[in-house]
Amino acid sequence: MRFLRGGWAICKRELHSYFVSPVAYALLAIFWLAEGIFFVSILGYWAAQGRNADARVQEFGAEGNLLNVPAMVAGSFLDVTALVLMFVVPIIAMGLLSEEKRRGTMDLLLTSPVSNAGIMWGKFCGAYVFLLFMLTPPFLFQFVMDFYGDNEFGTFVTGFLGLALMSASMLAATLWVSSITKNQVVSAFAGYGVLMVFWFIDAPANLLPSIYQDGVRWLSIHNHFGDFRVGVISGRDLNYFVWFPAFFLFLTYTALESIRWRGVRSS
Length: 267
Fold this sequence. Notes:
Layout: H1 7-19, H2 22-60, H3 69-93, H4 98-103, H5 106-111, H6 116-140, H7 153-179, H8 184-200, H9 210-218, H10 221-229, H11 235-266
């Protein structure tokens, strides 16, 4: 498509830059190590809670509490992974466009036979494929659940689908931040700020007039991820995870158009 001209080349270049960068490998190692520690800790905690629940059932009979350990582990691990992603995604996205501007290579990109949409999609897709690669080992942790009871495979599948959609939304928002800054550190911290706003925006909803409460809650990323983590896929949540990244990708495209227009005016 002419509209996305050059996007595939940009995507391949971004992926190559990740897999030859020691920083990217360090980020992968830290993320996987942290996820492994979190998983083992969560598994150990809920396994102990499950043994306590079984003991109460044996002692008190039907009045004891049954505990679905795999479901609790799945939900807790998905929640932790979502929080970790909120801090990892801005690091991945911080230099996507801001570093191009700092180095002065943005002008070369904009004067090359690559469309603005191609630049945007190439940068986004390259970073997103890297993100999905990061999430692969944590997804495989679910097979450990076979040793502790019934495997909640469906919950993990929908949960990681939610993580994939949420990652795309976070990446689109932080890509836009990178498009309006020249400094990677500023881009990262501004990205954190944007994501935290959309993560916690539903917290003060009850303090607003009732007419605004539903609208504010709809903006929350975490609110829409909640159903995925319990194995539910709803049209409302899918709709959100289409429009949220689409909005920020449009803003990124607009920022690139503005940079190109200013370059033409100054030439």
